[in-house]
Amino acid sequence: MKAAPCAAVAIGIAVMPGIAFQNPAGANSNVPSFKDYQVPALEFFKGEPAEPRFKTSGQKKFESRIHLAASRGADFAGHFAIAQWGCGTGCVQVAVIDVQSGNVFEGPFGTLPKARISFQAADDDLLYRIDSRLLVARGCPNEKACGAYYYEWTGSQFRLLQQAPVKTSPVPLGH
């Protein structure tokens, strides 16, 4: 499983006293799994990555990060690469690159502040794999509604499958 910061979409997550991230669905709940959105190995792209083709000025602004992610090859959904970069304390921004065509796509939401949440389930804010179309983002998209977000990649955009909110816990302030 890989966690990477990149794309022309902002994503961020951070630690906030008094909020704890619980296992989004518990051990026996029906949250989406990587296996449910499996990409066959025959669809993995192993060739020379195409040069990124930027569609927006926002994407172009992070040209070096997007180029770097694309140059490393596919790491998501068979022939895509996730680009990530920091946007402040506990914050990352993300873009998706089709390493076959070079097309650059936005991430699942605008700004996701990373600095206001703690996690029990994993240390990674973004979870994804080359063999799956599932992306899990843990944090507060646009500084609201903190939780775990499960997205399916359609090949050109993300489709929200499920959201599991965070629960507050009795963590003393200052700890």
Structure in words:
With 175 residues, this protein is mainly β. The chain has one domain (9-23, 32-168). The protein is 8% helix and 28% strand. It is built from 2 helices and 10 strands. Strands 1, 3, 4 and 5 form a 4-stranded antiparallel beta sheet that branches. The longest helix has 9 residues, at 63-71. It is globular, with a radius of gyration of 16 Å. The two termini are 30 Å apart.
Mean pLDDT across all amino acids: 75
Share of residues in helices: under 10%
State the shape: globular
What is the end-to-end distance? Answer: 30 Å
Radius of gyration using CA atoms only: 16 Å
Treating each run of at least 4 consecutive H or I residues as one helix, how many helices?
A: 2
Structural class computed from helices and strand pairing: mainly beta
* Main beta-sheet strand count, sense and barrel state: 4 strands, antiparallel
Number of domains: 1
Strand content: 25-35%
Number of strands: 10
Q: In terms of per-residue confidence, which ranges show pLDDT below 50 for 5 or more consecutive residues?
A: 1-28, 111-122, 168-175
Series of secondary-structure elements, N-terminal to C-terminal: EEHHEEEEEEEE
